[in-house]
Amino acid sequence: MSQGKINVSVENIFPLIKKFLYSDHEIFLRELISNGTDATLKLKHLTSIGEAKVEYGNPKIEIKVDKEGKKLHIIDQGLGMTADEVEKYINQVAFSGAEEFLNKYEDGAKESGIIGHFGLGFYSAFMVAEKVEIITKSFKDEPAAHWSCDGSPNFTLEEGKKEDRGTEIILHIAEDSTEFLEESRITELLNKYNKFMPIPIKFGTKTETLPKPEGAKEEDEAPTQEVDNIINNPNPAWTKQPADLNEEDYKGFYRELYPMQFEEPLFNIHLNVDYPFNLTGILYFPKLTNDLNVQKDKIQLYQNQVFVTDNVEGIVPEFLTMLRGVIDSPDIPLNVSRSYLQADGAVKKISSYITRKVADKLSSLFKNNREDFEAKWNDIKIVIEYGMLSEDKFFDKADKFALYPTVDGSFYTFEELQEKIKANQTDKEDKLVILYASDKEAQHSYIEAAKTKGYEVLLMDSPIIGHLMQKLEGSKENITFVRVDSDHIDNLIKKEENQISKLSDEEKETLKTDLEKTIENKSYTIQLEAMDSSASPFIITEPEFMRRMKEMQQTGGGGMFGMGNMPEMYNLIVNTNHELVSEILNTKTAKKKERLINQSLDLAKLSKGLLKGAELTEFIKRSYDMVK
Asked: For residue 548, with 0-12 CB atoms within 10 Å meaning exposed, 13-18 middle and 19 or more buried, which class applies?
């Protein structure tokens, strides 16, 4: 038996571990199981190259809870340690023996899946334990070793009684951590951190029903047997080659990741690269809503099949954090700040690779089955639009497959849209004007008016589309987006109509005076226009620039311009060729004229969605009076 002090560079490492190194004590189990996995995978590699003259077999890691004795056991069947190795790797606080092993067996060991990335590993046990024991026997023909430490720098190391190879770690759980003696808590942690570890993990047993023996009667009960309860899947889908998986395999893995998610994913993207960095994974496009915040933190980050976090900001481009799935890479640094991740060269390359793979997959889906791509557009558009807005490289690729739907359900790429508008627009010198609606129901009358004039109207209704349109206008030559109820429509109508007013200049002056006298709200700029007599008598439009500024304000972009609250400004277009306008002009009774003007204005407001509150109540009352 030997005694001594652990060789550490601070007076007492244990308070440091408990208070500062880990913010979440529950990860001790991840650390210890990771060490056991490393020990098992090391043995596998050594037996494969003939350096370990033992039978590898079918090793597993076992977790046992002794609630009465207040102990938690983590047992592996890996390569174990000699007393000298315990001295080297435990007492010297060598953060991980994995790095040394990988350097020694550089040619083949990196493909073995050895983890070796999880900080102080073994010493995380002292976050929850007042005393820790290690009972270990090496695969070499040497005696077992028994190490014990009570949470101070003092330890004991003596010969152990273990007969079979491997390591057993016994945690004597501290009074403030007794939650880790509950089977339900351990099950929760195993499912969270170790669900896809590459070595089977046993936690208790379960009853398995066997087939009935031949000749058994129907009422006879089927025999049962107790079997190991293996809680993990050591060979998850992302560790396999895409050629070895079919569509049902991908859907099955999605259900494994998200057992409470009942909707099937729309499609998946399999990531697999080994140069200039290592990364595997599967990303899924779920059906998305327009609420950007609800979707995030669904992608799980792993290192060699060990769960690390579901906050992948800084690693995955922000617009893709709405996707779901798994990313596994040994090249992503752990436990560092987001700003560090964003500056890390390997992480930048990983982020660019993921962006490119997603763009390539979307492009492939578009080219191979456009009809299906169009059917899924509303479920995926928010990711694509967000990506086009935030990532220039993605914008360049997405420009070829991003779709622009019309209110009638047709879909165009931007190039197709340009060609169609060019063919229909008579004045070739002007900018191409792309009409769109943001609310099909609220802007219905405006949409119908535009369609009767032969205009194609897009339906662009996602919450960030206003910002994307500005980017498109800045990156494309001679195009402008115009909402179907904006003031730009006024110019289009004038250009299309080319009508001569039925009213004389004097009559128009009189009409304008009557309108200005009756309409007290100075937010409205009155414009008299000669239009087709079948067009509406009063039409309200909004200056496009002001409307966009208000929308940017609502989505967080207005503050940068220091504009404060934007004022309400509208144009009231009065059709001088409409019969009702002539009647307003020729009505002799001031009261009736006022009522006709107010009723016409309120109908225009109603069409624009501006009639609310007391004004709506007054309009309804006036309408009933007029009906009577």
From this structure: buried
Query: Residue 516 is encoded by which pair of tokens?
Result: 């200005």
User: Is the pTM value of this prediction over 0.70?
Assistant: yes
Side chain identity at residue 576, one-letter code? T
N-terminal to C-terminal alpha carbon distance within the chain: 109
Q: What's the chain's length in residues?
A: 628
Angle between helix 183-193 and 28-48 (nearest 10): 60
> What would the pLDDT profile of 46-57 be if each residue is shown by its tens digit?
999 999 889 999
| Cβ-defined contacts of 605-608 (< 8 Å, 24+) | 605/540, 607/445, 607/446, 607/536, 607/539, 607/540, 608/485, 608/540, 608/570
Average pLDDT in the 10-33 region?
Answer: 66
> Is the distance from CB of 319 to CB of 391 less than 8 angstroms?
yes
CA 349 to chain centre: 19
> Which residue type occupies 82?
T
At 236, the amino acid letter reads: P
| Cα 438 to Cα 436: distance, rounded to the nearest angstrom | 7
- Phi first, then psi: what are they for 426, rounded to 5°? -80, -35
Between CA 4 and CA 340 the distance in angstroms is 39
- Identify the DSSP state of 283: E
User: Residue 284 carries which side chain, given as an amino acid letter?
Assistant: Y
Q: What are the pLDDT digits (tens) for 176-193? A: 999 999 999 999 999 999
DSSP helix/strand/coil, 537 = coil
424: which residues sit within 8 A by CB, 6+ positions away?
454, 455, 456
Helix (H, G, I), strand (E, B) or coil at 460: coil
Query: Average pLDDT over the chain, rounded to whole?
Result: 83
Question: Tokens representing 354?
Answer: 């993921």
Indicate the SS3 state at residue 260.
Answer: coil
Number of helices (H), then strands (E), belonging to the chain: the values are 20, 22
Burial group, residue 351, by CB count within 10 angstroms (0-12, 13-18, 19+): buried
Whether the Cβ atoms of residue 28 and residue 174 lie closer than 8 Å to each other:
no
What's the pLDDT tens digit per position in 535-591?
A: 788 888 877 667 767 666 665 544 434 445 667 788 888 888 888 888 888 888 888
Query: Tokens in use for 189?
Result: 């942690």
